Amino acid sequence: MKNQPTTTPPSQRHRGGKSRRASVARMAAAILVATPVALTPWSAAQNAHAATKDPTVKKSVASVLAARKKPTPRTGAQKPLPALSKAQYLAQKPAWSYKTCSTAARVAADTGNSPYPIECARIRTPLDWQDFSKGSINLNITRLKHSSKARSARPLFVNPGGPGSPAGEFVSAIADSKESLRTTHDIIGVDPRGTGLSSPVECPLPDFTPKDQRDTSKAVRERMWQSYKQWTQACTSKHPKVLPHITTANTVADMDLVRQVLGFKTIDFFGTSGGSWMGAWMAKLYPHSTGRVLTDANAKFTGDWRSSFALMPQGFQRRWDKQALPWIARHNKDFGLGTTANEVRNNYEKIRSEVAKGRVRDLTPASFDATLMQMLYSDESLSSIGATLKQLNVSLRSSKGTVKMPSGQTFEPDDNESLLSTQTVRTAIVCNDTNFDRRRESLEKEYLDAQKKYPLQGSMLSVIAAPCAYWPWAPKKVPTINGSGSVNILMIQGEVDPATPVEGARAAHAAHSATRMITIDNDGNHGAFTSAPDNKCVNNIALAWLQRGIWPRQDVTCKGAPLPMENKIFEVTTP
After folding, report:
1. Ordered structural domains, the chain, with CATH
2. What are the Basic residues biased-composition ranges (predicted)?
3. What is the DSSP secondary-structure string of 339-382?
4. Can you tell me whether residue 221 is helix, strand or coil?
5. Cα–Cα distance, 181 to 175 (Å, whole number)
6. Taking the C-alpha atoms of 253, 258, 259 and 264 in order, what is their torsion angle to the nearest 10 degrees?
7. Of 289-303, 349-363, 396-410, 520-534, which range is least confident?
8. When you count CB atoms within 10 A of the terminal residue's CB, does the N or C end of the chain come out lower?
9. Nearest 5°: phi and psi at 494?
């Protein structure tokens, strides 16, 4: 399509509550600290709006990546609690309290557009839904009750993705961005088993990360694979009784237990990024108790995890090549990095080469690229990419010695309560859920091919499934997710989403007969439903579905918004 004029003032196109931005900043940092094993599509509060606008969260991840500050596990080996009977599980009476909520959930609730009266409780769930005798684990539930005068409301269960991200702060993020949902729904987040405060399983991070992901030499590859092997063996030895049961099937069974304990006949569900996978499984496995399902920033949930993650290098490279670099070039007066995308790229490469020489304190090429990659999650962060490159460019040119990262581009993690469990659970889900070729030679070929095609982050993003080469347990039998026996799923998908590329969403939509899809032209945010500003086209359809049960008659294409500081859309063509 041609460039489309818009009348929306740039100053009004980017807003959002503190809790959403702060939560994204923390989560983006967690992802990047855990690179390469846990670099995944993550949208716990959607979009990395984060970190650059609000003084409470004006933080980046560069120093974390450079110094590799690795948190220490807060828990020892996670052992099952005593077993209960089915009747005992169903008879549980949650004791609700604000004090039971996680630190992240409380911060998100207290710093939103308005304070949200969240409350939390814990219940027990079977460790293995196929064998209750193996014991039980805890589930942490966060709830924000509806604000209407009606006695009851529909329950909306929400999941931020990962897989393995805790859901507590996502509850307030949803309320912050979609206030009208509070008039029709109780918003409920369940920390997935093994993460957050749901009997967290924590393993230390791997002990090796290449300084430069473009270095794919044999020596680097050998050390990397040895690190994966050591990490996997240590982690699975630490939690041998729990890790085999960290699966999507068990996780959605937990959700259905929470539904029953809370007394709901059916539940609605919103899942974003990896949460789309959970939504598709709930729709298939629990069609009689699952109501309206909405997914955003979709994984290829009709396939396997490896093939879904394999799309990420392409997605980030496209966002970098087709939107970020041209946008910086169009604003050369602000950034001075060139008037064409190629000129900007050349300046980036020059800066990167200086980083490789040790010219930027506490920064490596890998951490430099990963920091830029983190900023690709949201349109609002494009200005941070330009500003960071500009300041480094000026500093390196004006000094012969070492320089610092730009002021304000440092991050000190203030809450690591979920970092290690997210890392561990993500790996367990990927390895336990679906069968795929997990031979080292196959995974390594994908790694090498991706780095050649997608140099920004190809190799780092292509090894998420690498620990599965050493995983001791076979994948579980999984349901066929193709729409048969499933309730309807309304999908939202940005065309240029970097972390969950449109190709995966289109493949899932084509293979699933019970889906409709809203595609947002030229939209590069990771997630649209909770992003700022609201897309009225998306909102109208999605809220009509969640709040009134109106199912769209056909797929819909919505127009995206211009990028920051612009008032027209520049077309990005996707296959």
Report:
1. 1-575 (3.40.50.1820)
2. 12-23
3. SSHHHHHHHHHHHHHHHHTT-BTT--HHHHHHHHHHHTT-GGGH
4. helix
5. 7
6. 160
7. 396-410
8. C
9. -75, 135
